[in-house]
Amino acid sequence: MKIVACNSNRPLAEAVAAALNLPLTKASVRRFADMEIFVEIHENVRGEDVFVIQSTSYPANDNLMELLITLDALRRGSARRITAVIPYFGYARQDRKSGPRTPISAKLVANLITEAGANRVLTMDLHAGQIQGFFDIPVDNLYAAPLFSRDVQERFANREPMIVSPDVGGVLRARIMARRLNCDLAIIDKRREKAGVSEVMNIIGEVEGRDCILIDDIVDSGGTLCNAAEALLKNGARSASVYVTHGVLSGGAVARIAGSPIEMLTITDSIAATEAVRLAHNVRQHSIAPLLAEAMRRISDESSVSSLFD
Ligand code: R5P
After folding, report:
1. Is 175 exposed, middle or buried (0-12, 13-18, 19+ CB in 10 A)?
2. N or C: which terminus of the chain has fewer CB atoms within 10 Å of its end residue's CB?
3. Domains of the chain listed by start with CATH number
4. What is the pTM of this model?
5. Of the residues 96, 165, 216, which should be mutated to test ligand 1's pocket, given the most ligand atoms within 8 Å of the CB?
């Protein structure tokens, strides 16, 4: 078993390698003057079971290209099996035609990864589970829910939390968490009755006096969650905390969250923390390295990955 780390999230790759007690395979990724990417694997990989760790996070196109070129280098180096470990799968939100003459970029990215040489994919909390079907190779989709529910149990031991979905699209995700924790569930229904009229946030569920926990898969601009937290407090909630798997946190998102009534935003390290994330008073990261490492060990041993979540 060999682990190759691309550059999007070195700290996570190093933590995974440490958990597996393996060194990272020596490899270098260089840029030519025109910024073309060049990858060189400095160790023999012939016949090896190779795992390439790369999140296709910001800058998404560079990181995706780095992954594709690394897969190509490994395939041409005669690796026996190549698993693309993609903790955060970018382009996942473009998973259907949103209008006439628009792309399904998630499918295109799946094709590119397969064509470049991946034999399997290991990822986490895909934006839509159906994206697994965009690949014709095996995909293992891990969940942060068990990790988050343990954390909620510790942090909210003496409180009466209520799980909240920030939009109708996230109800299934939130319901799974509510069931794990045996908690009540509320849903925020955002509606714009007429074009040009501001959005109305209707809350389905009685949140007054409750410690609300918003659940989502991605926080990008932070708009969805900051608005949801404000709506909850306006409706009498005692507090609003957030658990999100992928901290995309583009532009001024961290500042927006720091200035919001969100008590604490907990994200995983599927995307490397920026300086702003490290310094924010109400953002913390939970490592998925032990979970990824265990899943990789099981893939390598040909044992069950799904039983990790039993
Ligand atoms: C949407 O379907 C996702 O689950 C997230 O709710 C969304 O990507 C969050 O985006 P933002 O943080 O920009 O509101």
Report:
1. middle
2. C
3. 2-142+290-309 (3.40.50.2020), 145-286 (3.40.50.2020)
4. 0.95
5. 216
